[in-house]
Structure formats: C-alpha cells, structure tokens
Amino acid sequence: MEKFLNLFLTSKGTGLFIQVKVHSHKGEAVGIEKLSTEVRKEQIAQAALSLIASHGMRKLSIAGLARRVGLVPSAIYRHFRNKDEVLDAALEFIRNRLLDNVKAVYGETADPLEQLKRLLMRHVKLIRENQAIPLVIFSEEIYYGSPERKARVHGIMQGYLDRVADMVRQGQLEGRIRAEVDPKTVSLMFIGLFQPAALLWHMSDGKFDVTKHVEKAWKVFSRAIQPG
Predict the structure, then answer these.
(1) Are residues 94 and 197 in the same domain?
(2) Percent of the residues in the chain that have a pLDDT greater than 90, as a whole number
(3) 131-152: string of b/e by CB count within 10 Å (b at 16+)?
(4) Which backbone phi and psi does 41 adopt, to 5 degrees?
(5) Residue 102 and residue 30 share a domain
(6) Dihedral over Cα of 79, 84, 90, 92: its sign
(7) Dihedral (C-alpha) 160, 162, 165, 169: value to the nearest 10 degrees?
(8) Which of 77, 108, 130 is the last residue of a domain?
(9) Domain enclosing residue 56, as ranges
(10) Number of domains making up the chain
(11) Which pLDDT score, from 0 to 100, does residue 36 have?
C-alpha cells in the first residue's frame, strides 16, 4: 500500500510543503521514496510564486528561494540552473493550474453557461491562493526580457482564451448563449471580469473584495450573453 506524507520545511516563519511517498505493508511503514524530479520542481516553482507575491519579481533569486523553503542553494541548483529556469517553471505551474480548472469544470457540469461561471470562480480561487500570478503575467521581466518567455506567456493566455471561446461556441450550439456574439470577444470580456479586480485586490492588500465583485460582474455578464 502507498501513502503520502506531507512534510513542512520552515525557515524564519516561511515554509514549503514537501510530499514524500510512504510504502507500507499490513499497515506498517517500510520505506520512504523521494518524489519525482517533476514534483519537486513544481513545489519549488510554487514557492517562487510565494516569494514573488511577498517581495516582487526583482527579489526572486536562488539564494532567496532557498531561504524561503529552508534549503541550501545547492538543493535548488539540483533542479534549476538559474533564476530564469525557476521563472519558466513558475509559468508552467500557472499554465497547468489554468488547464486543470478547465478540465475540472468540464467534469462538473455539461451546461456551457454553468461551466463558464464555475471556471470564473475557480480562477478567483486560484488568484487568491497564488497572488503572484498577475504580477508575473504583467511584469516588466516578461514584456521587456526574453522574447521566448514573452511568447510563452502569450501562448498560455491564448490557450486559456481558446478554451473559454470553445465553451461559448458550445453554449451557442445549445441555445444557452446568443448566436450573434463573437466567441473570441466574449472570451476577452470573460477575462476582464476578474483580471482588473485581481490587481485591485493585490494592491489593496486584500481589502478589495475580489470574490464579491466577480459574483456581481458575472450576473451582468451572463445576462448580456444569454438569449433575450
């Protein structure tokens, strides 16, 4: 039987959850297996996002990340050669979470309009749990740094928009969404329901109620795209 054990590494009030696999036989633990490099890299990428949320993109460094998770820098270097690779991993983490949300709502309901609503609320939850996402997506390092990274971020955003547009098209086929609206335009409007609100929430240190705003914005948005 396999079980997972969560360990929390701490350093000066900060920490990182590390999960290891525990093998057991007849209820007794017989060994611990280190998780794959992919899982470990994802954990470090998530810690990098936490560091960015607290101190900004410019404070991201291997040494700072190591302090954040309570490890020595050499432990980080086992997985990443430099800060740029950490940032690329953080972008991959964001991409995977966005796609996970899309898959989740497809599994929860077959109604395209309800899928959009659930995707919206899942996105708000994702932003609340990972405050750095807007900071990374709209950072100077992305727009004025590596052209390859800029293209990668564009691909992440475009892929997400395409999936939202697919939901809109399906809603049109089923008569749940107005046939005359352009799915690509609706997908951009959908992003606009939470992106500015997420930035206000971050700049106000959480005082702006992003969840309440999005719930109200959804009511306006859904009425606008539904057949009269």
Answers:
(1) yes
(2) 51
(3) bbbbbbbebebbeeeeeebeeb
(4) -65, -35
(5) no
(6) negative
(7) -140
(8) 77
(9) 2-77
(10) 2
(11) 66
> 162-179, pLDDT tens digit by residue?
999 999 999 999 999 999
pLDDT at 145 over 80: no
Whether residue 49 sits in one domain with residue 137: no
Higher per-residue confidence, 57 vs 6: 57
> Does one domain contain both 8 and 58?
yes
Residues with Cβ within 8 Å of residue 74, at least 6 apart in sequence: none
Who contacts 49 (Cβ-Cβ below 8 Å, separation ≥6)?
90, 93, 94, 130, 132, 133, 136
Q: Which of 96-105, 124-133, 153-162, 170-179 has the lowest mean pLDDT?
A: 124-133
Residues 34 and 144 in one domain: no
Model confidence, pTM: 0.79
225 touches 178 (CB < 8 A):
yes
Strand partners, 3: 22
How far lies 86's CA from each of 43, 57, 77, 79, 93, in Å? Answer: 11, 12, 10, 9, 10
The pLDDT value given to residue 205 = 84
Both tokens of 219, joined, read 């009511």
Confidence at 31, pLDDT banded by 50, 70, 90: very low
